[in-house]
Specification:
It contains 12 helices and 14 strands. With 363 residues, the chain is of the alpha/beta class. It has 2 domains: 214 residues, Isopropylmalate Dehydrogenase (3-Layer(aba) Sandwich); 140 residues, Isopropylmalate Dehydrogenase (3-Layer(aba) Sandwich). Strand 1, helix 1 and strand 2 form a beta-alpha-beta unit. The structure holds nicotinamide-adenine-dinucleotide.
């Protein structure tokens, strides 16, 4: 039994998860897979109903599920709230309470959307990488931290970059496991020439790699990696890196593909995971049937692959999305106006994926 939690959230979160769930349910029903989906309010809608961005009941649903499908949270209406009550707090609470220590962000350039990339076609063609960012450690959480007064009346701000062997081992294991489902190449990114904590990172990753003789491990300094991502993005497969380096590199990599509405993500604690599009609640287009649901549909494919080892079903979703793009269906964010393209809304895009799935999936 797959126990799924569905937190649609605010704005376009509601619209895009609706389409993703439609596609997911069809696939699971067709393959006689038992599942239950429990819904909960998160973000601004939870604040409106209960006075907080996430309640204990909703957290309980998340904790008792195998996987969480998350839409997006936030909106102008809730911006004046104090930080603890803002919609985005729901996301941080879920990440923390579920112990989601590995963030997976694929960046793929579809041949038919190659023009959406700000880079030259000949450079981005074939790009298909997965950035794995450590999410609960490193400099964002290390102690001591703070801002202190100095005797001369000025101040000192400080943070601590700390990683333990165990923290590195578990993220490295995720990276190697994932690479086994891909092209069996792992690149570990660090700054081992300057930072001792990432020298340890490099050594521990090398140790973990001994359990994966089929996977080719290489290392790169983060400054070089930021250049190579632009110079030769197609050369990367799995990249594993620290919290802060991953934060920056994953945003850089997402720009290589150029279309925010196409990019899924996962945050894992072992097999348990939360799956969500990388975009936000897009208040500017919310409720207008304009949002691209493909990132959320692709997040469900990631869920089937990484939480449930249903790689073949994930492949069917990904293939359907690819075919729909090939056939010219475009939501406004990826519509160029070129001849042969069909401008569609959120629900039509969901229907197009579903209909493609029905065509390619053996009954
Ligand atoms: P955003 O990602 O919501 O939107 C940025 C731009 O991209 C907007 O012009 C939007 O219309 C467009 N866009 C985003 N997703 C799209 C999609 N699926 N299809 C078509 N176009 C899409 O980022 P923002 O405007 O900076 O933030 C809006 C709200 O979302 C804020 O409250 C922010 O805090 C929140 N936010 C939430 C998350 C999350 O829930 N994970 C992530 C980022 C931002």
């Amino acid at each position: 039994m797959m126990k799924l939690a569905l937190f649609a959230g605010d704005g376009i979160g509601v619209e895009v998860t609706k389409e993703a769930i439609k596609v997911l349910k069809y696939l699971l029903d067709l393959n006689s897979i038992n599942y239950e989906i429990e819904e909960g309010l998160v973000g601004g809608v939870s604040y409106d109903a209960y006075g907080k961005p996430i309640t204990e009941e909703t957290l309980k649903i998340a904790k008792e599920s195998d996987a969480v499908i998350f839409g997006a949270v936030g909106g102008t209406k809730w911006e004046p709230l104090p930080i603890e009550l803002r919609p985005e707090k729901a996301l941080l609470t879920l990440r923390y309470d579920l112990g989601l220590y590995a963030n997976l962000r694929p960046a793929k350039v579809y041949d038919d959307l190659i023009d959406a990339s700000p880079l030259k076609k000949e450079i981005v063609g074939g790009t298909d990488m997965m950035i794995i960012r450590e999410l609960t450690g490193g400099i964002y959480f290390g102690k001591p931290r703070g801002i202190e007064d100095l005797p001369d009346g000025t101040k000192k701000g400080f943070n601590t970059l700390v990683y333990t062997t165990k923290e590195i081992e578990r993220i490295a294991k995720i990276a190697f496991d994932i690479s086994m489902k891909r092209r069996k190449k792992v690149l570990s990114v660090d700054k081992a020439n300057v930072l001792e904590s990432t020298e340890l990172w490099r050594n521990v990753v090398a140790n973990v790699s001994k359990n994966y003789p089929e996977v080719e491990l290489s290392n790169m300094y983060v400054d070089n990696c930021s250049m190579q991502l632009i110079k030769q993005p197609a050369s990367f497969d799995v990249i594993v890196t620290t919290n802060m380096f991953g934060d920056i590199l994953s945003d850089e990599a997402s720009m290589v593909s150029g279309s925010i509405g196409m990019l899924p993500s996962a945050s894992l604690n072992g097999k348990k995971g939360m799956y969500e599009p990388i975009h936000g609640s897009a208040p500017d287009i919310a409720g207008q049937n304009k949002a691209n649901p493909l990132a959320t549909i692709l997040s469900c494919a990631m869920m089937l692959r990484y939480s449930f080892d249903k790689d073949n079903l994930a492949d069917y979703i990904e293939k359907s999305v690819e075919n729909v793009i090939k056939k010219g269906y475009r939501t406004q964010d990826i519509y160029s106006g070129a001849a042969g393209l069909k401008l569609v809304g959120t629900s039509q895009m969901g229907e197009a994926v579903l209909s493609e799935l029905k065509d390619i999936m053996p009954a």
